Structure formats: structure tokens, C-alpha cells
Amino acid sequence: MAKLWAGRFEGSANSLLDEFNASLPFDRNLYKEDIQGSIEHAKMLHSIGVLRKDELDSLINELRSIEQSIEEGKFSFDISHEDIHMAIESALSQKLGDVGKRLHSARSRNDQVALDFKLYCRKQNLALRDSLKALISTLLDLADNHTQTLMPGMTHLQHAQPISFGYHLVAWCLPLKRDIQRLRYMYEESSDCPLGSAALAGTPYGNERENLALSLGFREASLNAMDSVSQRDFALDMLYACASVMMHLSRMSEELVIWSSYEFGFVRFSDEFSTGSSIMPQKKNPDVVELIRGKCGRTYGNLMALLTTMKALPLAYNKDMQEDKEGIFDSIHTTLISLKILNESLKSIEINEKNMLEMCQKGHLVATDLADCLVMECGIPFREAHFITGQCVKYAESRKEDLSTINPDDLAVFLNKEILKTQSVNAEKLKNTLDLYECMQRRNSLGGCNFGEVKRQIEVLRGFLLSSKDC
Which of 15, 277, 333, 348 does the annotation list as catalytic? Predict the structure, then answer.
């Protein structure tokens, strides 16, 4: 079968070249975008007098027929066609003859592929945002039920201060919110349409690029034809967005892996989202979140691969840029399925409040509050109060107790006689200071873990989801 570009060639292409050169095995994913672009391009050609009305109607009908044939698995793909663009154009030409051959007037595969790929990324941008919103909504529902469920807040994976499980889940939501905002910005930045740029220098047809851009859902036509066909910033943005989302999911997954261990026992995945061992009958493994954590790396790799491909390409289009698509397809699929399965698995997760509370009674989570008490009640400078509290921690440990469970009377005696050398702290004040729940509630500053403040944070995020519903 002759290539559509075979006019200046005498010999036929080697079959190995066909295999090496073709992108059809993967860029056939762009068939919907290619047909959408071709239909609008055909309408534009009719408006400038290149196509008659009957020719336009024939092209649109046949393009719709090809789309249906592909969706039903009846379309015959031939690797000699190289890519989805030539596969569809060849089918049109076979069916419609010269009418099918007229469609490529005033465009090149260079702007055609740039259009299809950008349309695909923009559509998937919306899908990613929807999936992110769904996950945030699930997390907020879970957080709303656990604003008073105590758990240890950690730094360096060491016990730090008491917080609520709901507060921790809200903290998970904020990176996802930023991902949505980043995707929204990227969508706006990719709102210039490359179609009509042709190979690199524009066309002499007087094509109506501004109207064409609007008909395809873009804000405007791209400013410079050479840049239009040779840049893949929109694809790099999408790869970065996927890598960012997966990094955030991976961090969540790491905590869920830890929390589901017997050592922590904070959470338990349902049987529906767990796997077992081929040799150890007792095992129940959190494979979902382990896989999400593992798949994060491939999205990083896809981003680095395209950055490396683009780093030294001269203007304008180069065949190297054919390597832009597989990584995008993989990263988007990986990110979407990761968001979906994490969302579904969290809906049936079991929360062990008892284990969380027991873990709060280890590691002296109330130590900072004791230091703050010494500052506010006794007027002691914080650095000195910090040192004194450290001595109280050693005292508690010598008794094999935690500051949160030690008898306030005993601690008051130790402080007043051994450290302060004066009757400065009373046991009743210490009792309130060392209470885990009160400790959490005292942190009522904006962004803190106080029950009411966490409720406010949840409502702010729910408001964000509502305001971005149609964005």
C-alpha cells in the first residue's frame, strides 16, 4: 500500500522501518480527538470555499461512521499507515475518493497531532480533577466522623502531639486541592489551538483559525505556527501534574501501610481491597496502597523521559516527538485508576479508635503543653520551661509512665520540690494540662487541630468542591 507521502520516493519502505516508525499501536487512542478535529477542519474548509456543502456532508458522515467502526472494534488498522491520522485519512480516501483527499488541505500532520494530543490532555485534565474531587469528598466524609478521634501526631515518625484522625485526613486533602488548582491553571495555559499552523509556517489558504479554535473549545488560536507544532509544554505539564498527584497518593499510601500493620493497628482494609499470601495463611496485605506507592515511580520516569526527549530539539517538529504519547497515556491511566481505587478502598476502611488512643498514651505527647503551662502559669521563659519539661519526661520514664497518665499530684510534688523549689504549680492545673483531649482542644489557632477549627476546615474544603464543580 502506497504511503500518503510516497510521491518523491521510488522504492517502498522496509517492513522493519514500518514497525520502527509507526505510532499507530498507541496513538490510535487519539481517534476521537482526530475525528473531532477533522470534522471542524472540514467545516472550516467549506467556509473558505475548499469544500462544497455536499462534500462536507459526505466527509462528516464518513468520519462518524469510522468513529463508530473503531468503537465497535470493526475498523481495520494497518501498521503501514504509521499513525491514527493517516489510518483515518486512508479510510476516507478509499471510501470517498477525491473528497477524502481534500480534507488535508490547509493542515499538516504536525498541527494535526499537536491538536489531537492537546485535546486529549485537556479532556483528561477534567477527568483527573473529577477524580481528585471525589477522593477529597470521601476523605472529608471520613474526617467529619473523626474530628474527636484522638491519634498521635508525628514528626520524624516519632510521637509529637495529640491530634484527631479527622485533622490528619484534612491534611491529606490540601495537597489534592492544590493538584486541582494546578490542573485548572494548566488547562487555561493550554487553551490556544494549534490547528491551521500546518507544518511550521502557516498556510496560504486564509483558513479561519480563530473560529476554528473556538469551535474546538479553545480560547484562541496559537500565536506562532512554528512554536505551535514544536512545543509539548502542555504534555509536560500533564506529566508533572500526574507525578504530583501520585506523589501525594504515595505519601498517603505509606501512612496507610504503616497504620494497617499489627504494630499500629489504626486501620484495616476490607477483604474486598486486600490480598493474601500464597504460603502464609494468616496474611492480609494492603496491596492496593503498596501498588499506588510503587506506581508513583513510573509517573516520575515518564516525566523525565519527555523532558529528556525535548531538551535539545531544534525547531520545528522532529520525529523524536512521537515519543511523547506513550508516557502520557501511561501516566494518566496510572493516576486515574490509583485515584479511583484509593477512593473506593477508603469507603470501606475500618478505623480502630481504641488503638489510636492507646498509642497517644506513649511518647509523652503532652510535653509541649506542660512547657506552655510553665510559661503561662509561672512566667518561666520558654527555653527554661522546655528544659524543665525534659526533666519531667525523665521523671515519668523512671516510673515507667507517660506524662499523659502520670498522677498529677505526684508530678506537682516533683515539680514544686525538686525543680521549682516553690509552690508554683497545683495538681488540678496539671490534670487539665496533661489531658490528651484538652491538649488537642487547646490548639484553636487558625489551622489548628481544635475540634471546632477542624470542622471549619472541613467546611472550607466542602465549599471549594462546590465552587469548583463546573471548573
Answer: 277
Q: Write the DSSP symbol of residue 275.
A: B
- Distance between CA atoms of residues 449 and 442, nearest Å: 8
Q: What is the DSSP string of 365-434?
A: TTHHHHHHHHHHHH---HHHHHHHHHHHHHHHHHTT--TTTS-HHHHHHIIIIIISSSS---HHHHHHHT
C-alpha cell at 82: 504509521
Among candidate residues 114, 136, 221, 233, the one with its CA nearest the CA of residue 181: 136
DSSP 151: E
CA 452, CA 459: separation in Å to the nearest integer?
11
Q: Which three cell numbers stand for residue 434?
A: 496533661
Cα separation, 396 vs 441, whole angstroms:
23
Beta strands in 171-272 (DSSP E): 192-193, 220-221, 267-268
Contact between 299 and 210 under an 8 Å Cβ cutoff? The reply is no
Catalytic residue among 76, 156, 278, 398: 156
H/E stretch holding 249 reads helix 233-259
Examine the residue annotation and report whether 156 is marked as an active-site residue of this protein: yes
What is the C-alpha separation between 386 and 389, in angstroms, rounded? 5
Calpha distance 54→49 (Å, rounded): 12
468 has catalytic annotation:
no
pLDDT score of 6 more than 60: no
How crowded is residue 248: how many other Cβ atoms within 10 Å of its Cβ?
20
- The 10 Å Cβ neighbour count of residue 349 is 17
How many Å apart are CA 237 and CA 186, to the nearest integer? 7
**pLDDT digit string, tens, across residues 236-270:** 999 999 999 999 999 999 999 999 999 999 999 99
pLDDT digits (tens, 9 = 90+) for 327-383: 999 999 999 999 999 999 999 999 999 999 999 999 999 999 999 999 998 889 999
